[in-house]
Amino acid sequence: MIEIIVGTNRRNSASSILAKCLLKYYQDLQADAQIMDLVELPPETFSPESYKDKPEKVLKFTDRILSSTGLVIVTPEYNGSMPGSLKLFIDHLPFPESFEGRPVCYVGLAAGQFGALRPVEHLMQVFSYRNAYNFPKRVFIPFSHKVIDPSVGLNDQETAIRLQEQAQSFIQFCTTLRKDQF
Question: What is the pLDDT of residue 181?
Answer without folding.
Answer: 56
